[in-house]
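Changelog-adjacent note: as of this version, every example in the card shows the full chain rather than a window. The one below runs 167 residues end to end.
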Amino acid sequence: MRKKNNSKTVKQAVKPVEVKKEETVAQPVSEPKADAKANVKAEVEKAVEKTTEKVEKAVEKTTEKVAEKAAEVKDTVKKTTAKAAKAAKTAKEAKPAKKEPVKPEIIVQYQNSEVDTAAVEERVKAQFVAEGHKAGFIRKLNIYIKPEEYSAYYVINDKFSGRVDLF
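Full-length structure tokens:
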């Protein structure tokens, strides 16, 4: 079975709200081309400023790198110049190699006999040392060859004289 609901039902009252229509005011319409040009011009100016800043930074970095390379080149030039100066100094100090004059081989021939003058010189020096003198003591040596006597006469340092056999 069903029970009856004895409660009072309340109806809510809804007040109607009036919606006002907004009044539209006519605003002057500016030319869209002028605004677009101004916007584009402003954007271009900003882009140019950014690009200019980037270029300036790149130029600064490049300038720093060039300065570093220039310093390295200066160091290299200094080192190379120092080495060249040292080499030039060494070259000046070094005596040039003297060419020894050509010493001819002189041979004396007399009546089917011959003797080399270098061999005569060696005999003279050997006899001088045998007499008790030092070989380094010889400063000047004159040798006179007389083939008809089969001998050579010598004078050492204008003090000592002697005779050796040629053949």
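Structural remarks: Residues 105 and 116 are 7 Å apart (CA to CA).
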